[in-house]
From TrEMBL:
Transmembrane segments: none annotated. Residues 1-26 are annotated as: Disordered. One of its GO terms (molecular function) is oxidoreductase activity. It comes from the Eukaryota. It comes from Staphylotrichum tortipilum. InterPro entries: AKR, NAD(P)_OxRdtase_dom_sf. This is NADP-dependent oxidoreductase domain-containing protein.
């Protein structure tokens, strides 16, 4: 697995969907960063495989917004989805915050009302900033142990305010959990073995079950893309068995102790 470059760490508010979409935010979203000239094809393949949430941005150093649009249009043209079924995140700058607010469903201006369903912010590590920005509905941050202590404070803020928390660097930023030299953490491995998924997939499922919206930028169309989408269903099926229910319960407690205990 290649390590991925980081985006600027400044807080950048983001809009998350547009007027002609009524889709809700799915627990696993496709991340389009660093795909360059492959962006359109990979976005198309991701939608074809079953992703219904797409994360893009206007920062040309990291994203190809036009390519993302092209991939989406191709999928719509082929009848794989309609626009209203797709949840799209597209960031703007912090300066635009108050203007963007006027497009929320609560806007007093009927011509703007509801063109944006949620406003979000990324790379924010201060609860006080969140407290002074009105209408934050999404926070997109690094979800990792090192440096951010699993972003506990920010996740708690989101839970208290009803905002969604989106996590990136979930695999590359946490090698100690799922890929340390001696092998993955025992509870991740136990879920993977029981449910017949890979350790990375088991890790994704644990985060999703905890309410983290996972950003997944896989380029492995035939393998990881489908595997990541199918993993939650496989784990749910296994949890329906007596043994699966028991093993999951033990692993879940361990997982919560890791990511939620100070
Ligand atoms: N707001 C921000 O500042 C910010 C910063 C970073 C990222 N993001 C967003 O988050 C998205 C995700 O970025 P990320 O940095 O978390 O990393 P990522 O692009 O998801 O890539 C992480 C690595 O995970 C691998 N992977 C995925 N599924 C796997 C599986 N089942 N088994 C093994 N490996 C697997 C990928 O390899 P393969 O290609 O081989 O599957 C890739 O090398 C980005 O595309 C972007 O949309 C936002």
């Amino acid at each position: 697995m290649a390590s991925t470059p980081s985006e600027p760490t400044s807080a950048a508010p983001t809009t998350t969907t547009t007027s002609d979409s009524t889709a809700t935010m799915p627990p696993l979203m496709y991340g389009t960063a660093w795909k360059k000239e492959r962006t359109a094809d990979l976005v198309y393949e991701a939608i074809k495989a079953g992703f219904r949430g797409i994360d893009t941005a206007a920062m040309t150093k990291h994203y190809d917004e036009a390519g993302t649009g092209e991939g989406i249009r191709r999928a719509i043209r082929e009848g794989i989805i309609s626009r209203k079924d797709l949840f799209v995140r597209c960031p703007k700058t912090l300066l635009a915050w108050s203007t963007l607010q006027s497009y929320l469903p609560s806007s007093p201006d009927p011509s703007r009302r509801g063109k944006i369903l949620r406003l979000g912010i990324s790379n924010v590590h201060s609860v006080s900033l969140l407290d002074v920005l009105p209408g934050v509905g999404v926070v997109q941050n690094r979800f990792r142990a090192v440096e951010r202590a699993w972003d506990r404070q920010i996740r708690s803020w989101c839970e208290a305010k009803g905002a969604r928390y989106q996590g990136f660097w979930t695999l590359t930023g946490n090698p100690s959990i799922w890929d340390y030299p001696a092998g993955p953490a025992v509870f991740v491995q136990a879920i993977a073995d029981g449910a017949g998924v890979s350790c990375a997939e088991a890790w994704y499922v644990l985060m999703m079950e905890r309410g983290v919206v996972v950003l997944d930028g896989t380029t492995d169309v035939g393998g990881h893309m489908r595997g990541d989408l199918e993993a939650r269903g496989k784990v749910a099926e296994w949890r329906g068995t007596e043994e699966g229910k028991h093993v999951w319960g033990v692993c879940w407690e361990k997982f919560l102790r890791v990511v939620d205990s100070a």
